[in-house]
Amino acid sequence: MTPSVLTLSIAKLGLALVPALAVVWILWRWSLEFKNVIYALSRMLLQLMVIGYFLIYIFEAEVSWIIMVLLTLMLFTAAWISMGSVKDRRKMFYAKALLSILLGGGTTLIFITQVVLDLNPWFYPRYVIPIAGMIFANSMNSVSLAAERFMAEFEQNPDYEKARNSALKASLIPITNSLFAVGLVSLPGMMTGQILSGISPLIAVRYQIMVMCMIFGSAGISSACFLRLIKGTGKEN
Fold it and tell me: pLDDT digit string (tens) for 104-126?
């Protein structure tokens, strides 16, 4: 019988890079920018290897202040990355993005971990860190899309409400598509991970429903907050 979790060797992990390297080769052959992709892949490998060892320490320590520092770092980083879509206004919008992700993502994180899951202790790292990562990442992507679409729309037609509405709809396209596809086209990360670890699919489904609701809510609230905070920002800036 196959074990609940298969051991992935370093050699097999290296083979997993083959599809990604194939895309890099296509970009190179088509004379497109490929160096940034190589940098992104390299950074991904380094970050995940480092965070893997770091999480071992965090899970064993279970110290609240370490969790708070990590969550703060995640929040500030997410806000900075989210403004990469409007680099010419990155510094101007950064504080607004930070507050938006804090309002949308932070409140959702507190509600899910303290009300829905009722964690004890409240900072239980094996739940808080992965859930915070999902929430902040989706809030980050949503705010980034909202910022890019808002500026594009506003520069063509300086009507705040039209630009705002168009930006909010655009920011929710990825997560809305995920809502349509989940269970039919894809089994998302958390559900897949739980099934691979041997948990009943029925339990995994409950967690996935919770995840889909929390990331949709945090993404929508964060985008709405950001678009409200940048009201009045236009060509004059």
Answer: 999 999 999 999 999 999 999 98
C-beta separation of 142 from 219 below 8 A:
yes
Residue in this structure with the two tokens 């991904």, named with its chain if needed: 44
Task: Find all residues with CB under 8 Å of 142, minimum gap 6, and list them.
Answer: 171, 172, 174, 175, 219, 220, 222, 223
Peptide bond into 121 cis (omega under 30): yes
CA 7 – CA 23 distance, rounded (Å) = 27
CB count within 10 Å of CB 224 equals 21
Average pLDDT, integer, range 134-147: 96
Closest CA to 168 of 231, 106, 94, 109: 231
35-39 contacts, C-beta under 8 A, 24 or more apart? none
In the block, residue with structure tokens 């965090």: 58
Q: Which two three-digit tokens encode residue 22?
A: 């194939």
